[in-house]
Amino acid sequence: MLKNLYIENIAVIEKTTIDFTKGLNVLTGETGAGKSIVIDSINAILGNRTSKDLIRNGADSAFVSAEFEELSERTVNALGEYGFTLEEDGSLMIQRELTVSGKGKCRINGRPAAVSVLKELGKYLIDIHGQHASYELMSPEMHITYIDKLGEYGDELAQYRTAYRKYVHLKNEFDKAVTDESERARRLDLLKYQVDELEAADFYSGEYEELTEKKRIIENKEKIASSLNEAHEYLSGGEESDGAVRLLEMACDSLADISDFMTESEEIASRIRSAIYELEDCRDELTDLFEASDTETESLEEIEDRLDLIYRLGKKYGNTIDEMLAFLENAKKELEYLERFDENREELKRSCEEAKNKAIELARDISLKRRKISDKFALSVKKEMTYLDMPNVELVIRREDCELNINGCDDVEILISTNPGEQPKPVAKIASGGELSRMMLAIKNVLADRDNTDTLIFDEVDTGISGSAAQKVGFKLKEVSKSRQVLCVTHLAQIAALADSHFKIAKSVSDGKTYTNVTPLDHDGRKYELARIIGGVEITQTTLDYAEELLNQN
Predict the structure, then answer these.
(1) How many Cα atoms sit within 13 Å of 549 on the Cβ side?
(2) Contact present, 283 and 293 (Cβ < 8 Å)
């Protein structure tokens, strides 16, 4: 449940903290006092889209934090899936910062988190039912979701949706294959040309580097030959001078002359001989290098033509030879697939038909379950609405076969009649705002056992109702709050009087600035707030007595 909500610089709220409790929490206040701001702040915590317009005038940023405790197992498991854990005391802290630059920050128990993670976790933490949710009833496509939530075939529905998505994917592939015959022919011609061009080029990995090296050698052939000759002469000697090898041999001979007198000279002579052997190897390698450079078979023109080909084809098929070779491999695979098109098309057609038949089979099984649960849903909602001062209501679930879609093969719509003798008609044509609110509350209550959300929020669920209907809505909210935490924004004293915790939202002006404060009310505070709701501007002793009576009754 939601234990604590802290709001800073959201609209007209500068700073406020609300400590919610178990059971029914009610928020009341004048129109425009800021009740919707509290809901907006909770929406921010749940990862819903926000606007920088929410940030208080003159502030650079806004901040909301919410502390949750006594979380359900589903919530804890979902938290773990995203790599987060509860605090040591079992609590969960979610924080969100909004900035005028649009770069906000989210944290879960102090660790950075994406807004998308907040949105996913929010499904388990809080369910907000506002006026927009009531108007969902006017959209027939939403009705099937209520019935499915009551049914115990969630696993089967998930299995069907997987099969349906597979069928849609295969059907799209098959339709594309059938309708794009001319495109296939064009693609075949292009691929054949590309494969032929690349195969004719006969590139190999590392060729570019090898050609570049050869080009440098040819372009500097004279300098290379001259330098190799000079180095060879310095080692071997020439007509007028001894080379390094001969000079070192002479050094060894000189040391041999004194070896009988100074034995240490033998070690030095040995080291010089090792150097002579190394230099002789270098001399032989210089000879090989010279011969190799002198016998180069490719001309500079041939190498440049090859490099030019690599450049030209590289502009079409890849920046490097390795990329071009990868392009060639993929092109050959696609070419083979298209050349085997007729065979592949038949195979795709068979796969598509098998996937469709599987989806139809699963959809029909769900349809049978859906028909059974529809009657139970209608009777249960009717019972709840009858209690909520709609004794003549009749509900009928209209079901017709339809083309396969993500929900199966059923077109479902709830039809309603609110007066005796009237035929049930679509909700959008019959229900008023107050009837929509009560109908949605009835549905919520029917689905309560299927909904594992820890906290329910009802934002002005009392729209369009009064009198005994309002009191019964309050009783129903109270009943729901016995199994989970309920937060309710209301304008009706009958509902507010049933609260376990009552918060007053009030607006004031100071130094030309508007401030909204949220205050928990004690018994006397609740009495005066109920009297304000009942009596308006002038609070009389009569309204105070009636408010006291409401509190005592509840």
Answers:
(1) 7
(2) no
The CA–CA distances, whole Å, from 367 to 148, 155, 275 equal 10, 14, 93
Q: What angle do the packed helices 244-256 and 264-294 form, to 10 degrees?
A: 160
Report the alpha-carbon distance of residue 433 to residue 464 in Å, rounded. Answer: 6
Residue recorded with tokens 């599987």: 358
Q: Kindly state the tokens that stand for 381.
A: 């909602």
Query: Maximum Cα–Cα distance for the chain, whole Å?
Result: 139
d(CA 93, CA 111): 10
Q: Reduce the DSSP state of residue 543 to 3 states and report it.
A: helix
Tens of pLDDT, residue by residue, the chain (554 residues): 999 999 999 988 888 999 999 999 999 988 777 788 898 899 999 998 888 888 988 888 999 999 999 888 888 888 999 899 898 888 999 999 999 888 889 999 999 999 999 998 888 898 887 655 666 778 888 899 889 989 889 899 999 999 999 999 999 888 876 666 777 788 889 999 999 999 999 999 999 998 988 888 777 777 877 887 888 877 877 667 788 888 888 888 888 878 778 878 888 888 888 888 888 888 888 888 877 766 555 788 888 899 999 999 999 999 899 999 999 999 999 898 788 777 777 888 899 999 999 999 999 999 999 999 999 999 999 999 998 888 899 999 999 999 999 999 999 999 999 888 889 998 878 767 777 878 888 888 888 777 668 888 888 777 777 778 888 888 888 988 888 899 999 988 999 999 999 999 988 888 778 888 899 999 999 999 999 988 866 888 888 999 999 898 87
- Distance in Å from the first CA to the final CA of the chain: 23
* CATH 3.40.50.300 applies to domain 1-137+454-521: yes
Residue 514's DSSP bridge partners are 509
Place of tokens 């409401």: 550
Based on C-alpha coordinates, what's the Rg of the chain? 42
Spatial distance between the Cα atoms of 502 and 221, rounded to a whole number of angstroms = 96
- Strand ranges of the sheet holding 513-520, from the earlier edge strand across to the other edge: 126-129, 455-459, 485-489, 24-29, 501-510, 513-520
Domain-by-domain residue ranges, the chain?
Answer: 1-137+454-521, 153-363
Q: Say whether 540 sits in a helix, a strand or coil.
A: coil
**Dist. CA 26–CA 529, nearest whole Å:** 12
Report H helices in 139-206.
Answer: 143-150, 154-179, 181-201
